[in-house]
Amino acid sequence: MRLFTRLFRELDESNRTLSKVAAMRRYFEEVPPADAAWALWFLVGNRLPSMVRSRTLRAWAADLSGYPDWLVGDCYERVGDLAETVALLLPLAGNGTDEPLAAFVENRILPLRDWDESVRFQLMRSVWADLDREQAFIVHKLLTGGFRVGVSKALVVRALADCFGVEKKVMAHRLSGKWTPDAAFFEALQSGEGASDRRSQPYPFFLASPLKGDPEELGDRSEWIAEWKWDGIRAQIVRRGEEAFLWSRGDELVTDAFPEIAQAAATLPDGTVLDGEILCWGDGRPLGFKALQTRLNRRKLTQEALAENPAVFIAYDCIEWQDTDQRDEPLVSRKTRLAEALRVIGAQGAIRPSPEVAAENWADLRQLWSGSRERGVEGFILKRRNSPYETGRVRGHWWKWKIDPFTADLVMVYAQAGHGRRAGLFTDYTFAVRHGDGFVPVAKAYSGLTNSEIREVDRWIKANTLARRGPVRTVPAQQVFEIAFEAIAPSSRHKSGLAVRFPRILRWRKDKAPADADSLESLSALARVIH
Prior knowledge:
By secondary structure, the chain is α+β, with helices and mostly antiparallel strands. It has helices at residues 2-13, 17-30, 33-43, 54-65, 69-79, 82-89, 101-109, 117-128, 133-144, 153-164, 168-174, 183-191, 259-265, 289-296, 303-308, 331-342, 362-369, 372-375, 451-463, 520-530, and strands spanning 209-210, 224-228, 233-240, 243-248, 272-282, 285-286, 311-321, 324-325, 351-353, 379-384, 398-402, 406-417, 426-435, 438-445, 467-469, 472-474, 480-485, 487-490, 498-501, 504-508. Strands 3, 4, 5, 6, 7, 8 and 9 form a seven-stranded mixed β-sheet that branches. Strands 12, 13, 14, 15, 16, 17 and 20 form a seven-stranded antiparallel β-sheet that branches. A four-stranded mixed β-sheet has the order 1-11-10-2, with no helix packed on it. Helix 4 (54-65) crosses helix 5, helix 5 (69-79) packs across helix 6 and helix 6 runs antiparallel to helix 9. It is globular.
């Protein structure tokens, strides 16, 4: 645990990419393979199943520290991070444990899931007896699923690639899909043999970059393929070993959630991997992201659910053909392979090709782009015809030309302190629309303001708090903000009757009064028009 704690400290305290890569490489070379595998598992964003609820951890801290629960709550509000708060409050007397990371996780943390709360408390007391405060903080993060250390998966891949002397693209592929954090897996990463279940293993996704300027700046229109940007779930179909697998971009196996796609995928030629988008489809157009969410959130899919929101896979790339990696081939060649793969399925089945949008010049394409909302899409993806299939977000080959988001002027009514580096500052806000003589909450957002604006809003919130409920403060409905969002739909789960997707702050409208904010009626009308 000492070496893992040191790694956490080095990554958390550094803002330099080279320093972080060097710290990870040093750790991977220094520790046994089993420890390296567990560290890697946490660093790329995997989480343990919840071992201890946050409420329980807070109660244990009050019990062992002797402080009343209200004081623990105040400390939590001030610190902004429960794992750190508990580590600071507990009467820890240990000097830290030298137990290896793998042994600690497997022998001290994972067994907690097999016991009820009273036994877990006793087991945790024995764990705390060996820890210092820094180790306790990390253990609390692991227990609650809140472990984050400020490195991206791409940076971890880079460190591993440097460590083993292989290309980043190769290492990213070896880490794709599901894998078990053990010594055998980590040792296999170097050779590539058995690093994961090759039969079902997807490829790292190639991501388009946002187009900031005008598309005309990309040059000759004939060098680019334009496809609709679908509002769905990015996914890959893997057809190998006479089985079909459906992977989401988040490395989640979602085959069972979309049986109609899995059934169609079983007819693809063996040794084929397709990249595309999962959508719910009806009456010749996408049904919207809300329809797609109903398929993901169901524990059991009924025939009624399948009929109500049928799913399709819009395929736009073929990245493996006849068991051969096609990613270095030009896009036009991969499109030919895609057409060949889909020939047996047909153009209107559960798997269908993403059509190339015909437009002779950028002006004609822009005219089509302006009608994206009516088509139920978000704009265009522009792809260079000779582009390879890269790993991650590599600029220059694929661009997403999105339509402008929806916007609304909303009023802040609640605020909550942030976490980590934002602890102590009120950065998470709840916004409301006008309704009758009052306001109804409709969205939460925490991004979009500058650091100076965050500090200014924080001072205003602290000076104008009307009430407190736990970490949440009620404030006067006086400050208006312009909020952007990608979609809006009716929702019975929210008091306003509406749900917005991806809300974020565009600007603080100091020039507007609460009476100028949008009304519930206007947003409801917008939702009806869209749907």
